[in-house]
Design goal:
Two copies of one chain form a homodimer. The first copy, chain A, is α+β, with helices and mostly antiparallel strands and 181 residues long. Chain A is elongated, with a radius of gyration of 20 Å. In chain A, strand 1 and strand 2 form a beta hairpin.
Chain lengths: 181, 181
Protein backbone atom coordinates (compact mmCIF):
# COMPACT_ATOMS: atom_id res chain seq x y z
CA UNK A 1 0.00 0.00 0.00
CA UNK A 2 1.05 3.55 -0.67
CA UNK A 3 1.54 4.73 2.91
CA UNK A 4 3.28 7.94 1.86
CA UNK A 5 -0.15 9.41 1.16
CA UNK A 6 -1.58 8.43 4.56
CA UNK A 7 -1.76 12.03 5.78
CA UNK A 8 -3.93 12.92 2.76
CA UNK A 9 -6.13 9.83 2.35
CA UNK A 10 -6.66 6.39 3.83
CA UNK A 11 -4.22 4.28 1.75
CA UNK A 12 -6.94 1.62 1.41
CA UNK A 13 -8.81 4.05 -0.84
CA UNK A 14 -5.81 4.29 -3.16
CA UNK A 15 -4.62 1.84 -5.82
CA UNK A 16 -2.30 -0.61 -4.07
CA UNK A 17 0.82 0.06 -6.15
CA UNK A 18 2.68 3.07 -7.53
CA UNK A 19 2.24 1.95 -11.13
CA UNK A 20 -1.53 1.60 -10.63
CA UNK A 21 -1.74 5.08 -9.10
CA UNK A 22 0.25 6.46 -12.05
CA UNK A 23 -2.30 4.97 -14.42
CA UNK A 24 -5.12 6.39 -12.32
CA UNK A 25 -3.50 9.83 -12.61
CA UNK A 26 -3.19 9.54 -16.41
CA UNK A 27 -6.88 8.66 -16.63
CA UNK A 28 -7.83 11.55 -14.38
CA UNK A 29 -5.65 13.99 -16.33
CA UNK A 30 -7.16 12.75 -19.61
CA UNK A 31 -10.47 13.99 -18.25
CA UNK A 32 -9.62 17.02 -16.14
CA UNK A 33 -6.10 18.01 -17.14
CA UNK A 34 -4.76 20.41 -19.73
CA UNK A 35 -1.41 20.85 -21.46
CA UNK A 36 -1.72 24.49 -22.33
CA UNK A 37 0.52 27.03 -24.07
CA UNK A 38 -0.34 30.64 -23.31
CA UNK A 39 0.90 33.43 -25.55
CA UNK A 40 1.18 36.55 -23.41
CA UNK A 41 1.94 40.16 -24.21
CA UNK A 42 4.98 41.32 -22.27
CA UNK A 43 6.41 44.58 -23.53
CA UNK A 44 9.76 44.38 -21.77
CA UNK A 45 10.82 41.29 -23.73
CA UNK A 46 12.75 41.20 -27.00
CA UNK A 47 9.75 40.43 -29.22
CA UNK A 48 6.98 41.77 -26.94
CA UNK A 49 5.42 38.33 -26.45
CA UNK A 50 6.21 35.33 -24.26
CA UNK A 51 5.33 31.68 -24.64
CA UNK A 52 4.10 30.27 -21.37
CA UNK A 53 3.55 26.50 -21.07
CA UNK A 54 1.36 25.37 -18.17
CA UNK A 55 0.15 21.96 -17.10
CA UNK A 56 -2.96 22.11 -14.97
CA UNK A 57 -5.64 19.86 -13.54
CA UNK A 58 -9.00 21.23 -12.41
CA UNK A 59 -11.29 19.89 -9.72
CA UNK A 60 -14.10 21.04 -7.45
CA UNK A 61 -12.97 21.90 -3.93
CA UNK A 62 -14.96 19.02 -2.43
CA UNK A 63 -12.78 16.54 -4.36
CA UNK A 64 -9.52 18.44 -3.95
CA UNK A 65 -7.93 15.36 -2.35
CA UNK A 66 -7.17 14.17 -5.89
CA UNK A 67 -5.17 17.32 -6.58
CA UNK A 68 -3.28 16.77 -3.32
CA UNK A 69 -2.45 13.22 -4.40
CA UNK A 70 -1.24 14.44 -7.80
CA UNK A 71 0.88 17.17 -6.20
CA UNK A 72 2.46 14.66 -3.79
CA UNK A 73 3.16 12.31 -6.69
CA UNK A 74 4.88 14.93 -8.83
CA UNK A 75 6.60 16.71 -5.91
CA UNK A 76 6.22 20.04 -7.69
CA UNK A 77 3.56 22.58 -8.62
CA UNK A 78 0.91 24.24 -6.49
CA UNK A 79 -2.84 24.19 -5.86
CA UNK A 80 -4.68 27.48 -6.34
CA UNK A 81 -8.28 28.65 -6.83
CA UNK A 82 -9.04 28.39 -10.56
CA UNK A 83 -8.35 31.84 -12.00
CA UNK A 84 -11.53 33.67 -12.96
CA UNK A 85 -13.79 30.94 -11.60
CA UNK A 86 -16.03 30.34 -8.64
CA UNK A 87 -14.33 29.93 -5.31
CA UNK A 88 -15.18 26.21 -5.18
CA UNK A 89 -13.00 25.15 -8.11
CA UNK A 90 -9.31 24.45 -7.59
CA UNK A 91 -6.45 23.94 -9.97
CA UNK A 92 -3.18 22.05 -9.64
CA UNK A 93 -0.71 24.10 -11.67
CA UNK A 94 2.83 23.42 -12.88
CA UNK A 95 4.35 26.30 -14.82
CA UNK A 96 8.02 26.05 -13.89
CA UNK A 97 9.91 25.19 -17.08
CA UNK A 98 12.25 22.98 -15.09
CA UNK A 99 9.46 20.96 -13.41
CA UNK A 100 7.71 20.55 -16.76
CA UNK A 101 10.92 19.29 -18.37
CA UNK A 102 12.16 17.08 -15.56
CA UNK A 103 8.92 15.75 -14.05
CA UNK A 104 5.70 16.29 -16.00
CA UNK A 105 6.85 15.51 -19.55
CA UNK A 106 8.83 12.36 -18.64
CA UNK A 107 5.85 11.10 -16.58
CA UNK A 108 3.39 11.45 -19.46
CA UNK A 109 5.85 10.03 -21.98
CA UNK A 110 6.00 6.91 -19.84
CA UNK A 111 2.31 6.91 -18.88
CA UNK A 112 0.64 8.07 -22.05
CA UNK A 113 -2.56 10.09 -22.07
CA UNK A 114 -5.04 8.61 -24.57
CA UNK A 115 -7.45 11.46 -25.32
CA UNK A 116 -4.92 14.23 -24.74
CA UNK A 117 -1.97 12.66 -26.57
CA UNK A 118 -2.49 15.04 -29.51
CA UNK A 119 -2.31 17.94 -27.07
CA UNK A 120 0.65 16.54 -25.14
CA UNK A 121 2.97 16.00 -28.16
CA UNK A 122 3.10 19.65 -29.35
CA UNK A 123 3.22 20.76 -25.69
CA UNK A 124 6.33 18.62 -25.19
CA UNK A 125 7.89 19.92 -28.42
CA UNK A 126 7.30 23.54 -27.47
CA UNK A 127 8.68 23.10 -23.93
CA UNK A 128 11.75 21.31 -25.33
CA UNK A 129 12.33 24.09 -27.88
CA UNK A 130 12.00 26.75 -25.17
CA UNK A 131 14.59 24.88 -23.10
CA UNK A 132 16.94 25.02 -26.09
CA UNK A 133 16.33 28.79 -26.46
CA UNK A 134 14.58 28.56 -29.82
CA UNK A 135 12.35 31.50 -28.86
CA UNK A 136 15.34 33.84 -28.79
CA UNK A 137 15.43 34.28 -32.59
CA UNK A 138 12.62 35.81 -34.61
CA UNK A 139 12.30 32.72 -36.83
CA UNK A 140 12.28 30.51 -33.74
CA UNK A 141 9.62 32.38 -31.76
CA UNK A 142 7.47 32.71 -34.89
CA UNK A 143 7.52 28.94 -35.45
CA UNK A 144 6.72 28.22 -31.80
CA UNK A 145 3.85 30.67 -31.72
CA UNK A 146 2.39 29.20 -34.92
CA UNK A 147 2.60 25.74 -33.35
CA UNK A 148 0.85 27.02 -30.21
CA UNK A 149 -1.96 28.46 -32.34
CA UNK A 150 -2.35 25.12 -34.11
CA UNK A 151 -2.81 23.55 -30.68
CA UNK A 152 -5.51 26.06 -29.82
CA UNK A 153 -6.74 29.07 -31.77
CA UNK A 154 -9.20 30.13 -29.08
CA UNK A 155 -7.07 33.05 -27.90
CA UNK A 156 -7.39 36.70 -26.89
CA UNK A 157 -5.05 37.95 -29.63
CA UNK A 158 -5.14 36.81 -33.26
CA UNK A 159 -2.09 35.03 -34.67
CA UNK A 160 -1.75 37.81 -37.22
CA UNK A 161 -1.67 40.48 -34.50
CA UNK A 162 1.08 38.65 -32.60
CA UNK A 163 3.23 37.94 -35.67
CA UNK A 164 2.81 41.50 -37.01
CA UNK A 165 4.04 42.94 -33.73
CA UNK A 166 7.04 40.59 -33.69
CA UNK A 167 7.86 41.70 -37.26
CA UNK A 168 7.53 45.39 -36.29
CA UNK A 169 9.86 44.91 -33.32
CA UNK A 170 12.38 43.19 -35.59
CA UNK A 171 12.10 45.99 -38.19
CA UNK A 172 12.53 48.65 -35.50
CA UNK A 173 15.63 46.98 -34.10
CA UNK A 174 17.04 46.59 -37.64
CA UNK A 175 16.47 50.33 -38.21
CA UNK A 176 18.26 51.17 -34.97
CA UNK A 177 21.20 48.92 -35.87
CA UNK A 178 21.46 50.43 -39.34
CA UNK A 179 21.09 54.06 -38.25
CA UNK A 180 24.28 56.12 -38.54
CA UNK A 181 25.90 56.68 -35.14
CA UNK B 1 -0.05 -5.27 -25.05
CA UNK B 2 -3.83 -5.11 -25.14
CA UNK B 3 -4.37 -6.21 -28.75
CA UNK B 4 -8.09 -6.68 -28.24
CA UNK B 5 -8.51 -2.91 -28.63
CA UNK B 6 -6.47 -2.75 -31.88
CA UNK B 7 -9.53 -1.94 -34.02
CA UNK B 8 -10.23 1.10 -31.80
CA UNK B 9 -6.75 2.43 -31.02
CA UNK B 10 -3.09 1.60 -31.63
CA UNK B 11 -2.31 -0.67 -28.64
CA UNK B 12 0.98 1.24 -28.14
CA UNK B 13 -1.12 4.20 -27.02
CA UNK B 14 -2.76 2.10 -24.31
CA UNK B 15 -1.39 1.05 -20.91
CA UNK B 16 0.46 -2.21 -21.48
CA UNK B 17 -1.55 -4.37 -19.08
CA UNK B 18 -5.22 -4.93 -18.21
CA UNK B 19 -4.73 -3.87 -14.59
CA UNK B 20 -3.10 -0.60 -15.71
CA UNK B 21 -5.96 0.12 -18.10
CA UNK B 22 -8.45 -0.58 -15.30
CA UNK B 23 -6.69 2.02 -13.16
CA UNK B 24 -6.69 4.46 -16.07
CA UNK B 25 -10.47 3.94 -16.38
CA UNK B 26 -11.03 4.59 -12.66
CA UNK B 27 -9.08 7.83 -12.93
CA UNK B 28 -11.02 8.88 -16.00
CA UNK B 29 -14.35 8.03 -14.37
CA UNK B 30 -13.34 9.97 -11.24
CA UNK B 31 -13.17 13.01 -13.50
CA UNK B 32 -15.85 12.46 -16.13
CA UNK B 33 -18.08 9.74 -14.77
CA UNK B 34 -21.23 9.82 -12.70
CA UNK B 35 -23.06 7.29 -10.54
CA UNK B 36 -26.52 8.77 -10.74
CA UNK B 37 -29.92 7.84 -9.34
CA UNK B 38 -32.83 9.38 -11.20
CA UNK B 39 -36.25 9.56 -9.58
CA UNK B 40 -38.82 9.55 -12.39
CA UNK B 41 -42.56 10.02 -12.45
CA UNK B 42 -44.23 7.00 -14.03
CA UNK B 43 -47.96 6.87 -13.43
CA UNK B 44 -48.51 3.24 -14.40
CA UNK B 45 -46.36 1.97 -11.52
CA UNK B 46 -47.55 1.03 -8.03
CA UNK B 47 -46.31 4.19 -6.31
CA UNK B 48 -46.22 6.50 -9.35
CA UNK B 49 -42.42 6.91 -9.19
CA UNK B 50 -39.49 4.80 -10.30
CA UNK B 51 -35.88 4.76 -9.12
CA UNK B 52 -33.55 4.65 -12.07
CA UNK B 53 -29.81 4.08 -11.45
CA UNK B 54 -27.51 5.05 -14.31
CA UNK B 55 -23.75 4.96 -14.65
CA UNK B 56 -22.49 7.34 -17.30
CA UNK B 57 -19.25 8.83 -18.57
CA UNK B 58 -19.22 12.01 -20.65
CA UNK B 59 -16.72 13.07 -23.29
CA UNK B 60 -16.44 15.38 -26.29
CA UNK B 61 -16.93 13.63 -29.62
CA UNK B 62 -13.33 14.30 -30.66
CA UNK B 63 -12.11 12.14 -27.76
CA UNK B 64 -14.84 9.51 -28.02
CA UNK B 65 -12.18 6.79 -28.40
CA UNK B 66 -12.01 6.71 -24.59
CA UNK B 67 -15.71 5.88 -24.38
CA UNK B 68 -15.19 3.12 -26.97
CA UNK B 69 -12.36 1.69 -24.84
CA UNK B 70 -14.54 1.80 -21.72
CA UNK B 71 -17.45 0.14 -23.53
CA UNK B 72 -15.16 -2.61 -24.85
CA UNK B 73 -13.77 -3.12 -21.35
CA UNK B 74 -17.16 -3.47 -19.68
CA UNK B 75 -18.79 -5.36 -22.59
CA UNK B 76 -22.11 -3.66 -21.85
CA UNK B 77 -23.81 -0.28 -22.19
CA UNK B 78 -24.08 2.07 -25.14
CA UNK B 79 -22.69 5.36 -26.44
CA UNK B 80 -25.24 8.07 -27.21
CA UNK B 81 -25.26 11.84 -27.77
CA UNK B 82 -25.48 13.46 -24.33
CA UNK B 83 -29.19 14.12 -23.73
CA UNK B 84 -30.05 17.80 -23.94
CA UNK B 85 -26.52 18.81 -24.91
CA UNK B 86 -24.68 19.93 -27.98
CA UNK B 87 -24.20 17.37 -30.70
CA UNK B 88 -20.47 17.15 -30.01
CA UNK B 89 -20.75 15.63 -26.55
CA UNK B 90 -21.17 11.89 -26.12
CA UNK B 91 -22.07 9.73 -23.19
CA UNK B 92 -21.32 6.12 -22.37
CA UNK B 93 -24.41 4.91 -20.52
CA UNK B 94 -25.16 1.78 -18.50
CA UNK B 95 -28.69 1.65 -17.13
CA UNK B 96 -29.46 -2.06 -17.25
CA UNK B 97 -29.89 -3.21 -13.66
CA UNK B 98 -28.21 -6.48 -14.50
CA UNK B 99 -25.11 -4.87 -16.07
CA UNK B 100 -24.81 -2.49 -13.15
CA UNK B 101 -25.00 -5.37 -10.66
CA UNK B 102 -22.81 -7.85 -12.50
CA UNK B 103 -20.23 -5.60 -14.19
CA UNK B 104 -20.08 -1.96 -13.12
CA UNK B 105 -20.41 -2.31 -9.35
CA UNK B 106 -17.94 -5.22 -8.99
CA UNK B 107 -15.42 -3.34 -11.17
CA UNK B 108 -15.50 -0.20 -9.00
CA UNK B 109 -15.48 -2.20 -5.78
CA UNK B 110 -12.21 -3.73 -6.96
CA UNK B 111 -10.84 -0.56 -8.58
CA UNK B 112 -12.00 2.14 -6.21
CA UNK B 113 -12.85 5.66 -7.33
CA UNK B 114 -11.17 8.22 -5.07
CA UNK B 115 -13.17 11.42 -5.58
CA UNK B 116 -16.44 9.65 -6.35
CA UNK B 117 -16.31 6.98 -3.65
CA UNK B 118 -18.92 8.86 -1.60
CA UNK B 119 -21.19 8.82 -4.63
CA UNK B 120 -20.46 5.20 -5.51
CA UNK B 121 -21.28 3.70 -2.09
CA UNK B 122 -24.94 4.87 -1.90
CA UNK B 123 -25.30 4.08 -5.61
CA UNK B 124 -24.23 0.50 -4.93
CA UNK B 125 -26.55 0.25 -1.92
CA UNK B 126 -29.54 1.50 -3.89
CA UNK B 127 -28.89 -0.83 -6.86
CA UNK B 128 -28.48 -3.78 -4.48
CA UNK B 129 -31.74 -2.90 -2.69
CA UNK B 130 -33.58 -2.62 -6.01
CA UNK B 131 -32.28 -6.05 -6.98
CA UNK B 132 -33.75 -7.38 -3.73
CA UNK B 133 -37.10 -5.74 -4.51
CA UNK B 134 -37.00 -3.27 -1.63
CA UNK B 135 -38.81 -0.67 -3.75
CA UNK B 136 -41.94 -2.84 -3.86
CA UNK B 137 -43.11 -1.79 -0.39
CA UNK B 138 -44.02 1.75 0.58
CA UNK B 139 -41.48 1.81 3.44
CA UNK B 140 -38.83 0.43 1.09
CA UNK B 141 -39.30 2.86 -1.78
CA UNK B 142 -39.54 5.77 0.68
CA UNK B 143 -36.18 4.87 2.23
CA UNK B 144 -34.53 4.46 -1.19
CA UNK B 145 -35.86 7.75 -2.47
CA UNK B 146 -34.67 9.55 0.67
CA UNK B 147 -31.22 8.01 0.14
CA UNK B 148 -31.21 9.15 -3.50
CA UNK B 149 -32.07 12.70 -2.42
CA UNK B 150 -29.19 12.64 0.07
CA UNK B 151 -26.91 11.74 -2.83
CA UNK B 152 -28.20 14.69 -4.85
CA UNK B 153 -30.97 17.13 -4.05
CA UNK B 154 -30.63 18.99 -7.36
CA UNK B 155 -33.79 17.47 -8.84
CA UNK B 156 -36.86 18.47 -10.80
CA UNK B 157 -39.32 17.36 -8.11
CA UNK B 158 -38.95 18.09 -4.40
CA UNK B 159 -38.56 15.17 -2.00
CA UNK B 160 -41.76 16.28 -0.27
CA UNK B 161 -43.70 16.19 -3.55
CA UNK B 162 -42.53 12.65 -4.32
CA UNK B 163 -43.17 11.30 -0.81
CA UNK B 164 -46.59 12.99 -0.59
CA UNK B 165 -47.68 11.34 -3.82
CA UNK B 166 -46.47 7.94 -2.67
CA UNK B 167 -48.46 8.42 0.56
CA UNK B 168 -51.59 9.44 -1.39
CA UNK B 169 -51.32 6.36 -3.60
CA UNK B 170 -50.97 4.19 -0.52
CA UNK B 171 -54.00 5.88 1.12
CA UNK B 172 -56.07 5.46 -2.06
CA UNK B 173 -55.24 1.78 -2.32
CA UNK B 174 -56.08 1.30 1.38
CA UNK B 175 -59.45 2.98 0.82
CA UNK B 176 -60.21 0.67 -2.12
CA UNK B 177 -59.26 -2.42 -0.08
CA UNK B 178 -61.47 -1.33 2.84
CA UNK B 179 -64.47 -0.32 0.74
CA UNK B 180 -67.44 -2.70 1.01
CA UNK B 181 -67.81 -4.88 -2.07
Amino acid sequence: MLYEYADIIDPKQLPSRRKYLNNYIVGFVDGEGCFSISIKKQDDTKFGWVIDPVFHVTQSKQRSVILEIIKRTFKCGRIIPKPGQEADVLQYVVDSRRSLTEVIIPFFEKNKPIGKWKEFVPFKEIVTSLQKGQHKSKAGITELIKKAYELSSDRKHSLEEVLTEIQQREDASETIRRAPQ
